[in-house]
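COMPLEX REQUEST
Ligand: 6-O-phosphono-beta-D-glucopyranose
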Amino acid sequence: MAQSCTYVVFGATGNLSMTKLMPAFYHLEKHRRLADDVKILAIGRRDWNREEWLETVKDAVIPKARGGITDDVCERFCQRLDYFKMDILAADEYENLKQHISANHWPTNMAFYLSLGPDQFAPAVEYLGKAGLLKQDSGWRRVVLEKPFGYDAESAKQLQKRLNKHLDEEQTYRIDHYLGKGMVQNLMVFRFANLMMEPLWNRNYIDHIQITHAEDKSVGTRAGYYDTSGAMRDMIQSHLLQLLALVAMEPPASMEAEALRNEKVKLLQSVRPIMKKNVHNQAYRAQYAEGVVNGQTVPAYLQEPDVAEDSVTETYAALKLYIDNWRWAGVPFYIQTGKNMPKNRTIVAIRFKHPPKQFFRESQVKKMEPNWVVFGIQPEESIRIEITAKQPGLEIMTEQTSLDATLKGDDNNTYDAYEELLLDVIKGDRSLFLRYDEVKAAWNVVDPVLQAWAAETAYIDTYPAGTWGPDGAKKLFDHPEQCWRYHY
Ligand code: BG6
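STATUS: Structure written out below.
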């Protein structure tokens, strides 16, 4: 059972909190994963009182709970909730916050979850620090920072400098919710709890590795943020480079936070820097045009509310990377992400080389396919190993078949990434959170591409919404046998 804690959620009425954080707390309550004295204090600018907040949660969060709702869980959950109105950019209001917490005699262990815009992280931490809320004399104090951590390597450095004045690294929880996903953790378990693949997991046997994140959703109401960010910053710099690190890193010394993070940093630092002259061979971007997604006609990105009329912000980005170390020299890693694609699908696919000699006659081979190992990250959670086998019958005729493991649990052991991560903050387990040098190394990977794209404001390729992205991205592949894989 987790420890007692006052969880203070800044930006509690915002999109992330209402769609992810509050539901995650509710599910933790449902499965009795929270200690009795965990309090959840929502901070917002709206002039609400506790009752109005409870009504909002009851109307907008609880009805969508996984596996239905029960009155007693709802009641227990609501007892933990409170609301405090404040302007997070007003330094003097933090004193009132402090008094509110102590007047209610809530736990002195405190986690501050900053579900805020990136430019609000530094002031919020400064004001928390000045109000004495980050001092750990009467209990631990931890700060959870949402992504994006900075806008590029330089702004991340400046942000870190400001945080350093008030916050120790061991109090800092830079969240990347992909690390809380069950299948992302399964990548590590598959690699390091099985011996079978390890001898093959290198440049001698692997042709290339692909990471695809496709979403069937548009930017929705988030264009205010997204139009200044784009797919490379929003998905690749954070979530997808984390997937890359986990699939390609060396075995860590242990599964402890520092050992794990050391290996991820080492891997990200080994990515070959993309030179300016290579940006167009190694990166591709595009924007969705009008199209049909799930049977509905959807507008072009440029027609979405809050998008600048001449925006060249990419809603699709693809990248080819090389990792210059002994294990991976010469193996391309292809990464892509896009909004308004036909389906939600995140997969990590490892394509092996062909055997050195082809023994079977052409007439005996239906299709010459290499082996694949494919991790379905979401929505399907699966591991598939594709092999060639002999078809039943007298004659030798080969066919492709697969060994499949479906790993999704039932309601009792299915959880959302945020549930695990919210609990880890209370437990003080930072292994699934990012260290600053990791974030910095990830920015260094994408910065050259972002700089080149920022200078090209006249044109961006488009793809019709509801398709698997622009044809132009295919040019990243090294040879004609390589292509994006979208199925598990
Ligand atoms: C968020 C991005 O971090 O991750 C969103 O800001 C994206 O744009 C989301 O849609 C994807 O997360 P998931 O868990 O739905 O794959």
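REMARKS: The chain has a mean pLDDT of 95. The chain has two domains: 6-175, 182-412+435-476.
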